[in-house]
Amino acid sequence: MLAFEPFPRAAHRLPTHWRLSLWVLRPRALAALLRWTGAMLSGPERAALKALQEPSKPVTGYQPARLAAARRRLPAGRKAAEHPWMAHPPELAWRAATCLGLLILMAMVLTPTSNAQQCLLGGALLAVAGLCASAPRGSDDRSQVLLLMGISVLLAGRYAWWRVTQTLQFNGVAETVIGLLLLMAEVYYWLVLLLSHAQAAWPLRRAKAPVHRPAAELPHVDVFIPTYNEPLHVVRPTLLAAQNLDWPADKLHIHLLDDGRRDEFAAFARAVGVNYVRRTDNRHAKAGNINHALGRTSGEFVAIFDCDHIPVRDFLRATMGWLVDKPDCAMVQTPHHLFSQDPMERNTRLERGIPNEGKLFYGPVQSGNDLWNATFFCGSCAVLRRSALEAIGGIAVETVTEDAHTALKLHRLGYTTTYLPRILAAGLATESLAGHIGQRIRWARGMAQIFRLDNPLRGRGLTLMQRLCYCNAMLQFFNGLPRLILLTAPIAYLVFGLQLLDAAVPTLMAYLLPHLLMGKIFEKRVMGPFRASSWGSVYETVLAWYIMRPTLVALIAPRLGRFNVTAKGGRIEHEFFDWHIATPYVVLISVNLLALLFGVASLMQSARLDSTAVSLNMGWAVFNLLLLGVAVRVATETRQVRSAPRIRLAHRLPARLQVNGASPLHASLVDFSLEGVGLEILAALPCQPGQACHVHLHDGRAWHAFPAIISRLRGTSLGVQIDPLDVAEQRKLMACTFSRPDLWRRQSALRHRDRPGWELWQLLRTGVNGYAPLHGRSSKTLLQLADRAMYHAKNSARAPCTSSSSSTLKSPCASTPGSTCFLPRIEA
Description:
828 residues; alpha+beta; 7-stranded mixed sheet
């Protein structure tokens, strides 16, 4: 089968109707069409189309340039009359196919149906989608994704058309205003759905591009490490790892950009041999810091790392190939991998059950942007061309999200960007929910500022898909108000009796359920490896209240607000509940509880409201309470006493352990931190905690020995604390741990195993457990009860109930001696 990896790489240079056809035609049909058109062309014309029809092999050349060169080989004087159908052969066919597909889709969206017909159509499409989503992943995976996208757009379009044309019958001003607000929230999510599908229609999967030049011809690279108020123990590993970068020493220039103007940092920079840069003010924060350094350096390329992002040794070797021989490429961006747990993972205690929030963005989103030449600069773990930065006046300073705005300016000037989806650096996550929210507030404010000051929908230089990709990225941060509307909407009907949607419940379910279920199917297939099902709503619930005001203020007054630095490297000595952060969640919980109370009263007075509609709104309120319970759980900060997080390896690395001067014994490195390592040995050793030893680690080139003390011994597993090291030894330790080129290789390939049932259960139990800080231990007891019920149901264990002492919490069937019970008694 002909693979179409090269075609989408050049898609951002093709006409719009060519790009739209990617969503309509399957790759097999596209290949057949290209072969058919190629057979009817002359030799030079076939050469011009060859760039669009190549076997599946890595493409390391600059694809748009190759396309342009191929098109220049077309005969200049050729007239369309010689081949009327083939003047622009693929263009006509693809335009016709695109128009036909869109017409068919529009007809299916607009065709009115009865409830039974809608149920039949929805059920049939869901069955097809379910079969497609459950199919094994393979070479035709992208065709399956395109089919799922088509079904998703169809079901969403039918619901949206029915919702807008059949349900907007309001009585009174209050009902009209609140009903239109609810419709506005739904329109927002429809728009995000469409833009997200277009953005991630065909994610690129680039490989690293090696640099094929002798060392004497390699360019000079400046490495910028900006810092402001971070402690030295956070910055030190990044500096040492930067010195381990595989690049000629005379062409690698490392600069510590200290906006905190600290003498301690200046002394450390001199001790390790890097250039120390400070300025007299903090104007424009991080962007101003980098621009100041640009004026004092001269390297052809600039690599930027946040002070906590530690690069691997081959970072430059893996990225510079995309820049050295491609003058139009202005930037190569790599993922931001976090080796410590963020508050969502740590505070829910589900760090192994849910992926990090950023994995979705650095997975299909950025790879999808790369298709349309719309890769975002993310402020770190990237290499930029100095001449391109100078062409736009340096890093953007007009907004607080200088990174995304810089990429937008580069794209407006016609530069290309590249996203390499391989983990080449790793850093620290925020320690607390307050810090996490503060970081997201800055991102949301900055995106709103860009939307106002440099709107991608206006101005020159951008393609249609670049505009849509940037617009979708900005819209993602406007979800605060729509999510708050959904979190409070049940009270309108249950408390005030406002009819926000004029439709019978069966009709609503016929249109709404297929749309919602298709969303879950699509999530499982496309987003499943990067995000747990249903947890997207949790992220929005946690942030909604806090990002709503900054985005609205930025829309009105875009120049207000300032850059806030995200704290890293701190500790949380004691577990505590952050009432200040959780106050909005508690208010929203009260609103939904009030709605539930009125709903119960309405069911008891059946003449007041329709009982089916009341039950539906009560279910909505219960789901809101579940999401808010998880938000409250995240606001319960757990202890974090490690200033140096431990990294558990996805694969074991070779190591050796030497005790009492004996010969080194073979061992495996299972985890490490900046302070020590964890080893697994083949057999138990006659040693004890506190005993001195030497640990031998391999950096991929040679072995290095480090003095240490055994701190923990448990069978064949032991922990070793590294003794204090000088700078040279610290650099070697970094080379054996954080700087290893193969360290994150398996992490790049790892994908989250999406299990919707299990993840829904985790969401339920976390939501219930979240109410523990609000009302004591009762929810913990219920959680234990539910956990044991799940365990007994799984093992099909049926035990007869018997009476017991009063110190137990009896199950519902405990009052009937000898009855069969599925819920065991729980000790108080």
